[in-house]
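Quick one: structure for this chain?
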Amino acid sequence: MTQYNIKLPLEKKEIKKLKIGDIVYLTGYLYTARDAAHKRLINLIKENKKLPINIKNETIYYVGPSPEKPGQVIGAAGPTTSYRMDPYTPKLLEMGLKGMIGKGKRSKEVVEYIKKYKSVYFAAIGGAAAYISKCIKQKEFIAYEDLGPEAILRLYVENFPVVVAVDSKGNDIYKKKKAL
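Got it. Here's what it folds into:
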């Protein structure tokens, strides 16, 4: 396992060197979206309509943050279960999405698409929502405010801790037989 500090957006050379189990600290802008927002994005694609974000080379964090308290940028912001985004992920990867952050396993199909499109899936630390929120320095609503915590946000993060769960070669930490 190796540790990396990586600037967002992700670059091909950075993605290529990452291996499952690597610890990565991300700094830069990323987007948030959960299943309701993903469904809306896919519907726009099917209708040949413009997306509210340019997905190419971006990273999406699967999170529905709680409301912020006075003086905070964001409330608790821990990862949500990623498999709920699996029906929508192949199309977004095809369109250029490079990184995803969540928790838990991904479907075999999604792992194959990650490999095909040389992308990466990061696992964030579940149960550390308050800690993770301290890495988020800016928040901007982008789309679907009616979804509340599931709206698409643009976040600026500093040293956001994640672990490579599926690398660009299709290696899957959840299928690894022996401990890393």
